[in-house]
């Protein structure tokens, strides 16, 4: 179990995922993409601070081939800087797009953010911190994209063990595509990024599995029109994550005005 318990006291843990930050709008997103997504990241961090929640971002902070990296990092730093010296500096898991953007080199955008003290980077699989949450000791672990989830975790006195992941996992809509949900001995909750569609929480033994869905609507698709991006808030004793709708623009303001392809 990694490190001492931090002195900060939180009322819960706020999970959000897959911003896919880029200076150049991906796919069919309109101009203004970067500012729209940064506004959502900022809203999440502000809500975490106001509500005394530990902020955890579950991967794909940056999109692959994000365009003008200097412009991108300047704006990202402006959003993150108010939290850098506080207990609300976000814990950020490395996703597959972060890796394709070059994570593994200290020149990658994700690592530059960590080196600048803007984020806590989780780029290895394991326990990364221990925290006081509403009178309980909570251990936070994580598994980046491309690494294997643990089969068991030593609790070392923690009341709860929460685990972030950025993996292909067999939730309801993709049950035949990815490995099945299963109990991880010692882990109370796995919260996954990577899969952009919200999936219902399911329990396997002592372990609950949640997939909150991406905060950024990347693709021009009917189900993106109908869904609202959310963060998931964990509190001790919860049987499911509390959804918090992330402020966002209407679908027609960020995608082209045309019919969906047949």
Automatic annotation (TrEMBL):
<feature type="domain" description="Calcineurin-like phosphoesterase">
    <location>
        <begin position="13"/>
        <end position="196"/>
    </location>
</feature>
<dbReference type="InterPro" id="IPR004843">
    <property type="entry name" value="Calcineurin-like_PHP"/>
</dbReference>
<dbReference type="InterPro" id="IPR029052">
    <property type="entry name" value="Metallo-depent_PP-like"/>
</dbReference>
<dbReference type="Pfam" id="PF00149">
    <property type="entry name" value="Metallophos"/>
</dbReference>
<dbReference type="GO" id="GO:0016787">
    <property type="term" value="F:hydrolase activity"/>
</dbReference>
<protein>
    <submittedName>
        <fullName>Metallophosphoesterase</fullName>
    </submittedName>
</protein>
